[in-house]
Automatic annotation (TrEMBL):
It is found in: Cell outer membrane. It comes from the Bacteria. Belongs to the OmpP1/FadL family. It is a multi-pass membrane protein. This is Outer membrane protein transport protein. The keyword Transmembrane applies. InterPro entries: OMPP1/FadL/TodX. Keywords: Cell outer membrane, Membrane, Signal, Transmembrane, Transmembrane beta strand. The lineage of its organism: Bacteria, Pseudomonadati, Bacteroidota, Flavobacteriia, Flavobacteriales.
Length: 413
């Protein structure tokens, strides 16, 4: 029983690191229009499709921005009718990018983003405390890139992705009256992206892009157990003085396919649409290799824990619009629908996920070479019936979330 309990706890924690949700907050202007991608006015296009750099009007473009993301999850046990709410801090995703065209048909650039990550904090004594009390996830993408204009109406671009990641997770181990912390601050991985950007007509932009999966490799992860009695540590092969063990794991972040288009209905009014396809099915299994603790399920090596996964590929549909009230002031609106990558019977409290409708909007101001954009979004996650038999977690989960952002751009020449 001790072995099963600890194994389930460790699995749940690292699952959340690997299968955490994608944060669609990489451009303030884009968020205002449902986070659509076929916009090549400045360097913010670099993250979405490096090929778009070839169509930026200026030779040099610099952008930066940040967001506030507030969300709350409520879980209700339908047998006891007891409800529990999270007390999550405001998330602060950020981004920055630069694009430069040294010669007519060649552009180079760099993008920094935080596309995966969150912090969720449940009460320390809630009924799911053995799954999670607090979980903090962070990821950082560094992408150098290049774009080549193949013809006046089409370009190709590619990027290299270097990713860094952090996880810090607390949970209770009530059978022994203790707690467990899973922590790794040096996980890293690499990937790539490429795309084509088309402008067959001055009124139409088409963006086709692919971003590869990134395997985040945790080589020096630390699992720290805290129990009131030191006699428990030897049962798990741990040093009683520290209660720690090391683990390694490969934690995949998902691939993404995107098709986007923008059409100028009139010189002042444009409409944009995107389709995203996320490759969550990569999570067929998750393997953790502990240095000493015999908490695994592999015959012949009890320190290796392998768990099957049941994630599915998911889709996102986006529609946005922009209207130029003057040459300096722009109004923007959008809406999108984002599918959850798992079903009700695989719901996990560490990274709650819902089928979600999102409404967005914002305004932009252009002052010669400078641009200022503000945006906001309100999410309407659909309540779901939780039936996770593997974790013994049943009830109803609801959520609410909103986002706001400020972005700056500078196109000097």
């Amino acid at each position: 029983m001790k072995k099963i309990l600890v194994s389930t706890a460790l699995l749940a924690g690292v699952l959340s690191y690997a299968g955490g949700f994608r944060v669609s907050l990489q451009g303030v202007k884009q968020l205002a229009m449902a986070h659509t991608s076929a916009h090549a006015e400045d360097a913010s296009v670099a993250f979405f499709n490096p090929a778009g750099m070839s169509f930026i009007p200026s030779k040099l473009s610099i952008v930066a921005g940040g967001f506030g993301a507030s969300n709350k999850v409520t879980f209700q046990n339908l047998n006891t009718l007891q409800s529990t709410e999270t007390d999550n801090p405001i998330g602060t995703p950020i981004y920055a990018a630069v694009a430069y065209r040294p010669i007519e048909n060649l552009s180079i650039g760099f993008s920094f983003t935080t596309p995966f990550g969150s912090t969720i904090q449940w009460p320390s004594d809630w009924e799911g405390k053995e799954m999670v009390q607090k979980l903090e996830l962070k990821s950082f993408y560094f992408q150098p890139m290049v774009s080549v204009k193949l013809a006046p109406w089409v370009s190709f671009g590619a990027s290299y992705i270097y990713a860094k990641g952090k996880v810090n997770w607390d949970k209770a181990v009530t059978q022994f009256g203790g707690e467990l912390n899973i922590k790794d601050e040096k996980a890293s991985g690499s990937g790539y992206g490429f795309g084509f950007y088309f402008r067959p007509d001055p009124k139409l932009d088409i963006s086709i892009a692919y971003r590869s999966p990134v395997d985040m490799k945790a080589k020096k992860g630390t699992a720290t157990f805290q129990f009131p009695s030191a006699s428990i540590y030897p049962l798990l092969g741990l040093d009683p003085s520290t209660g720690q063990d090391k683990f390694t794991a490969t934690l995949p972040l998902v691939e993404e396919y995107t098709i986007g288009l923008t059409y100028k209905v009139t010189p002042k009014w444009l409409v944009s649409a995107d389709f995203n396809y996320h490759g969550w099915e990569r999570y067929s299994k998750l393997t953790l290799d502990f240095a000493n603790a015999p908490v695994g399920n592999t015959p012949g090596d009890p320190t290796i824990l392998v768990a099957p996964k049941n994630f599915k590929n998911s889709k996102t549909f986006r529609l946005g619009t922009q209207y130029a009230f003057t040459d300096m002031i722009f109004g923007r609106l959008g809406a999108y629908y984002d599918e959850s990558p798992y079903s009700d019977d695989h719901f996990i409290a560490e990274t709650p996920s819902f089928n979600t409708y999102v409404i967005t909007g914002g305004v932009g101001f252009k002052l010669k070479q400078f641009g200022v954009d503000v945006a906001g979004g309100y999410a309407l996650p659909q309540a779901r019936d939780v039936r996770n038999a593997a974790l013994g977690f049943n009830g109803q989960a609801k959520a609410q979330a909103f986002y706001f952002g400020l972005g700056l751009s500078y196109n000097p020449f």
